[in-house]
Specification:
Helix content: 40-55%
Number of helices: 16
Order of helices and strands: HHEHHHHHEHEHEHHEHEHHEHHEE
Strand order of the largest sheet: 3-4-2-1-5-6-7
CATH architecture of the largest domain: 3-Layer(aba) Sandwich
CATH topology of the largest domain: Rossmann fold
Distance between the termini: 39 Å
CATH superfamily of the largest domain: TPP-binding domain
Number of strands: 9
Oligomer: single chain
Number of domains: 3
Length: about 325
């Protein structure tokens, strides 16, 4: 599942995202993330925006609530119309307070409300899987679906959704995808009530707080913010007030919960784009950085070894064929085209 919304989300376009050509420069703020990625300090924290994009079409919490209203009404012994305005958290809270013995049953129904397990991966899922394979990101998600895992399987990347501490310990060769609100493959791990969202399992809280305080964190498509995220974000933005690169929020529109959490740094931290567009820019930034590195190495060799002149010329010809100019110095010590 994706994070809750107050109203049902508009129907997304049926057309999958089309990636931009390599010669189109990535957003400069996205390009500055590559250094953290190479240092294994880049943490992506994904929300609704990642899985809503086509062809995945992941539901919001409100969409899931609509599928559960009739079942919740039967549990509570009320008319379904009485629950018409309830969000998923509110529905779950009523069940937890009135009939707690049925809460796990509600989780089972929630896990089946949409085909989370067999979700068709979208562009963002595919790029996330590739970046995980290369060791360039750590990935944390509040979504219940298996879009990233399926994308990894298709690219021969073994990715395991981790929703319990025991799962993390059992990993052998699989790459972890931390699912702090649970996974549809394990319905009883799903966080439904607001209290569960605000204070999930201790291991999940520790994972998020370590990421926020120990690296560069990018929240991608996460509209609502649990307390365990808000508090460390507020602490980090106070301690690192002079560092604009520690926390970023990727979403077409910066919503009020984030404005409250980030305070004066809200606009500075906001990168206004969709999840697909962000992953596209990040992938192009990684490729351009790699090409720059090969170019620099070839030039250094060519200065000392005659045989390397052909190599340097080959890199230049490759750049010409790709339509990518030689790199020049830019803000942040990176490069642009």
């Amino acid at each position: 599942m994706t994070e809750p919304a107050e109203t049902s989300a508009p129907t997304p376009s049926a057309e999958p995202y089309t990636s931009k050509p390599l010669q189109e420069p990535p957003d400069p703020r996205v390009r500055t993330l590559v250094q953290a990625a190479k240092q294994r300090r880049l943490v992506l924290y994904a929300g609704a925006g990642l899985s809503k994009a086509p062809p995945s079409g992941g539901p919001t919490g409100w969409d899931v609530a609509n599928r559960l209203r009739a079942h919740a009404a039967r549990i509570l012994g009320v008319d379904v119309s009485e629950l018409h305005e309830c969000s998923l958290e509110e529905l779950s809270k009523r069940v937890a307070e009135t009939a707690p013995q049925h809460l796990d049953g509600l989780r089972e129904h929630a896990a089946r409300a949409f085909d989370f397990r067999a979700m068709e991966p979208n562009f963002g899922h595919e790029v996330a899987a590739l970046l995980l394979r290369e060791g360039l990101i750590q990935l944390i998600s509040v979504n219940w679906d298996c879009g990233v895992e399926t994308a990894g399987m298709r690219a021969d990347v073994r990715i395991q959704g981790v929703a319990t501490p025991a799962q993390r310990l059992q990993l052998v060769q699989e790459l972890p995808l931390y699912k702090v609100h649970g996974c549809a493959t394990q319905p009883r791990t799903l966080a439904l009530t607001q209290a569960e969202v605000d204070e999930p399992q201790r291991w999940a809280v520790a994972q998020v707080q370590n990421a926020i305080t120990g690296g560069v964190v990018v929240f991608v498509g996460l509209g609502t913010v649990g307390l365990y995220v808000r508090e460390p974000v507020a602490e980090v933005t106070t301690i690192w007030a002079a560092d604009a690169s520690s926390v970023h929020v990727v979403d077409p529109e910066l919503r009020e919960p984030w404005r409250q959490s980030l305070g004066d740094r809200a606009e500075e931290a906001h990168i206004a784009m969709s999840a697909d567009a962000f992953f596209d820019d990040l992938l192009r930034a990684v490729l351009l950085d790699t090409l720059d590195g090969v170019d620099e190495a070839a030039q250094v060799l060519a200065e000392h070894e005659a045989w390397a002149v052909d190599m340097s010329d080959g890199v230049r010809q490759l750049r010409d064929a790709l339509g990518v100019c030689r790199r020049i110095p830019c803000f942040g010590g990176g490069a642009t085209e």
